[in-house]
Amino acid sequence: MQVQSALFFETPQEIYRRVFQALKPRTQPPEFVVRFRRYANANSSIRMENGRIEVKMSDLLEGAPAPILEALAWILLTKLFRKPVPRIYSHRYRLWLNRRDVRRNLHLVRQIRGRKFLSGSKGEHFDLEEVFEDLNRSYFNGLLARPDLGWSRARSRTLLGHWDPAHNAIILSRVLDVESTPRVVVDYVMFHEMLHLRVPAEHHGARRSVHTREFREAEKAFHHTRTAKAFLKHL
Q1: How far apart are CA 155 and CA 202, in angstroms?
Q2: Using one digit for the tens of pLDDT, what is the confidence trace for 78-99?
Q3: Would 10 disulfide with which of 14, 21, 45, 197, CB 3.0-4.6 Å?
Q4: pTM of the predicted model, to two decimals?
Q5: What are phi and psi of 75, to 5 degrees?
């Protein structure tokens, strides 16, 4: 006679309770409240309040396999209790996030749900459209399609520029839009972000690389790198 094995499915709350008991075997598990939210990315959060642990996860994870939810439970609970995240679980979760179908879904969700502040290309002292087109002619034979261009809201000194593929936009930090900034510095930051349009990111297992070897080689084509970096070093 053939015996069919039974399948047991854990709820997200049961997964978090089990991981909690593995982390704190001598502690009575608290009440767990696990909710899925319509986030614009795969962000998750956890907090403990009044003897209860509340977890919020992106609804993109609602259909994820149980081992992925278990990996995220280990990541969130170890961070909550200030313990090192076991590498096996962080690797498993990154590997899942880096799957082609998951990356495609994340990209679509960012496009649909995400909000992007766009100030327009004209700043106080620089017009990013003019900067883009000058660089496009000089370094890309005019072949790059111009994305949306804008200045950031904050005057960040750490994130000087970024390329947002979900919204097809290049944003430069407003800290550069001052009279004392040489044009070559704005050119350098813009050139770096424009390279992301031409050189795609590489995905290998759990690893995602945007500044690939091809990217670094292409970056050497900029004529005034040393001057721009010297200025940015003291910014």
Answers
A1: 30
A2: 999 999 999 999 999 999 998 9
A3: 14
A4: 0.64
A5: -65, -50
